[in-house]
Amino acid sequence: MSLHLTDVTLTYPDGESRLTALDRVTLDVPKGSLTAVVGPSGSGKSSLLAVAATLITPDHGTVTIDGTTTTGMTRGELTDLRRHKIGIVFQQPNLLPSLTAAEQLQVMARIDGRSPAKARTRALELLDAVGLADQAGRRPHQLSGGQRQRVNIARALMNDPTVLLVDEPTSALDHERGAAVIDLITRLTHRQAAATVLVTHDRTHLTAVDRIAVVRDGRLRLPTPAG
Amino acid sequence: MFVAWRDLKFAKGRFALMGTVIVLITLLVGLLSGLTAGLGRQNVSAITGLPADRIAFDAPGGGQDLSYADSTVTAGQWLQWARTPGVTSAEPLGITTTRATAGDRSTGVSVFGVRPGSPLAPGSGEIDDGSVVLSTPAADDLGLKPGATFALAGQRLTVAAVRGDASFSHTPVIWTSLTTWRKTAPPAAADGPTATVVALSTDSATDTRAADEAAGTRTVSREDSLSAIGSYTSENGSLQLMRGFLFAISALVIGAFFTVWTIQRSADVAVLKALGASTAGLLKDALGQALVLLAGGTLVGTGIAAALGALVAGSAVPFLLTPATVLFPAAVMVLLGALGAALSIRRITSVDPLTALGSAR
Ligand SMILES: Nc1ncnc2c1ncn2[C@@H]1O[C@H](COP(=O)(O)OP(=O)(O)OP(=O)(O)O)[C@@H](O)[C@H]1O
Ligand SMILES: [Mg+2]
User: pTM score, two decimals?
Assistant: First the structure.
């Protein structure tokens, strides 16, 4: 198991009282499998992702990434953990305007202090995997929305993460491109043996994922295993 | 610096604009520094060049400040100092500002009267009651060569030599004997003034306070005596004030620029943090970027200032080009600019990586 959420409860301040965004959520994601999380707006999907990404500390419960429990870690330790173990595919591509597609990926190796030459090779390899081999030298404003989203995905894989977190990857894309992106993430999950959580409110593309979990009012419901 | 370098190139226009502002401010600071030093030298070089460490003035009454213009010391005061233990040399020095005329040329000069053979004047062996030593700017202004004659406050004098470039209160110095000087000075009290001040060479054993009391003088170090030159304090003070303001303005402008720049890229910073970039690394990169801009701008500005300074050196413009007048302000610019940038870049610390998630940007 590569990502464990155990009994996670998260509340936000809401006037006098507190609003429960996640209510005793337990989720295990094994390596090389993709769990889609669906649910209506406001159900807690983004909150779940933020907790798994170590960007929010839950009120209660534990998050375990590749065997490391994050409880009690300092902010610096969490940053290191994110850098080495977690890949995030943002809802908006969030590319840096001054960097070319290849450099968007190379920056990941830079912040990890790794060899620039190897990073370049790896970046081009990943861009090739997402079908952008010939766009490596382009800046974000020279790429289409779908191409940007694919760079965003390739970047998340640059440091070979154990856990891949994907936030509404299709919200800015049309139907066809959306399907292609989900398909790409599914393939890469298997290829990289990542434990992937994909959050979306749109079930239409989820034909090839390993399982679909549903959140409603902060409660997570997993499908009863077939058999 | 991976992203920082690319941002510099990508946002060329913005950084070029800021760089130009830094160049212009540095240029202004450089020119002002050279001018301050140049003007200062014209004002005080005759005093700072004296082979003496202390200057004794006639003690002014009524809480007045020391002044080269108002002081007159008598022979008694001078001899009192000459007898004081620890004083290796006590030389009377007379100072007046008057006009010198040679043919149809005329210029304001400072007359420095010394005893014949006194170490205070360059080439004092050639000074007597009829011949004087001119500083180079005095000789140039009057168009005089050794052997020529000219008129000084109604006296006909011969140029014995042209030596040094001493200047006092923005006028070139003419070294004369005390007798010649006395004829240019305003008429004075009963036993007649010997000089304006006494230039002293002392050692640590000298009890200045006791000697001052005995002689009725007030003694200050040579450097402190500069404020007794009428215009020096106010002139130097206002130029230094201007320079100080320019330093403050540059720090503020640079701070404002990097504040806006940091706010503009806070979304990028949030993304980098979410991806695992450390805050320390991001701060280092941003500061490095600011330093590149600052160093580049300061280098160009200082270069132009030095080039302009070299161009006007030797002309009538009192511009002093030395490492101290050029490199010191450049270093201060970089330091203060970095401080301003650091204060604005600090807000990187408070950017929350959580904002990179979701669609709200
Ligand atoms: N920072 C916050 N402060 C207070 N309440 C919050 C905050 N973020 C989210 N919430 C609340 O927590 C609940 C869950 O929000 P969350 O963003 O996780 O929902 P979501 O499932 O991602 O919705 P959507 O599909 O619209 O993105 C919502 O009721 C929301 O209003
Ligand atoms: Mg959401």
Answer: 0.83
